[in-house]
Specification:
- The chain is of the alpha/beta class and 446 residues long.
- 28% of the residues lie in helices and 13% in strands.
- Strands 4-16-5-15-14-3-11-6 form an 8-stranded mixed beta sheet, with helices on both faces.
- A hairpin with a 2-residue loop joins strand 9 and strand 10.
- The protein starts with 12 loop residues before the first strand and ends in a 20-residue tail after the last helix.
Amino acid sequence: MQYKSWQINRRAFLRGGGVAIALPYLDCMSWGKTKDTGALPKRLVVSYIAYGVYEPRTKDGSHHDWNWWPCKDPGPLTFNKSSEPFAPLKDSVSYLQGLEHAGGLGMGGHSSGDVFATGADMTGNEKTNNISIDQVAAKVNGHLTRYASLVLGTEGGTGSYGSAKTLSHYGPGRPIPSMHKPQEIFNRLFKPYAGKGVDQVRASLKRESSVLDLMLEDAHRLKRQIGKSDQSKMEEYLDSLRALEKRVERTSEWTHQPLPSVDTKGLNLEVSHKDPEEYTRCMYDLLYLAFLTDSTRYATLMLESEHSSGSEMWNYANYVLGYKGATHDIAHKRPPESGKWDNWRAKQHAYFLERMKNTPEGNSNMLDQTVVVWGSAHPHASHSNKNYPIQVAGGNALGFNHGRLHSFEEERKIPLANLFTSILNAVDVPTKKFADSTGEISELRS
């Protein structure tokens, strides 16, 4: 968005004597507000960790220091060794026990990550996923930003059924490839024209639009000539063409808005997977910058896939802990290895949450305006698809109340999709039902 003469960047600093102090949020920094309502952006993130989390049981019934769950009993949060990085964020995080997607129960422990963001019914012979929560939001409000959504993953691509490398799905059978190379992600966000002038880009988009018009015309003509069994396939093809058409129109519209200027100091876009902490934080930093510049408001981040034997993820625990074995294997070991691994992952996510919390927005901060789901689709060792480890953070300015461990087990059992319904309504995406939801979670949101 173009600055007015009286506007300044909300990342501005007062500088003097070699010291830089961040300015508070001022009215003249309001370039991040929506053009229509003047309201601050409302965002959502779904972040996934693979191979479950560690949930050891003690003989005396006490709560283990290395248990992923921060405390034993529902109620106010206390933090153990595994969850310690979130202690400073106590008023911004909640833990939810007993939630899962019924549609993923029959998939196997290392496959249910496929439906983590969709809640799709995969219990039968259906092999196509459904729409993910980020794409539901993007369809409604994605036009407010340069990019409708941001789909990230540490391995890239889509993977395959039972071995997904992405959390995001347009709809039945259409996964969205995740981006995993920091430099390419940065260029896509902040240098999308690949060195071309704006006039060149607009001319190219105009040509693409003309070609798509012809293709749609031919496809409609062909559809009238084929049988019913082929018409459904043709409709899927038409949907793809329409999606391309909308993307071209959208890109063309945004060429009339200047690209945001981003300071890359301290951002290593050439980072290697052999440095897992720097790589993971770089991915989080890119997501943070996308929000800071209001380039998008909806994102998914698949930090690890459930089938990473062909990538460096397989060696992450070795690089991080000096553990002699594959990252997957640590799921079946005893503490301290498993607990230390969970603690390391918690540190990376807490880094992202704290960075947002330390970024003022209006009378609150970026984290208060953003709901972040972080978790996995099965606990360690058991390969069960029940009782996903789920943490929800942020959204305090959107009605979310935090600082507690909630239990939704036995007679209080509800679907994980109820959480997604609550989040969608909180970010101004009116939703009565998502997947198998039965309502909202009133305990989380006032």
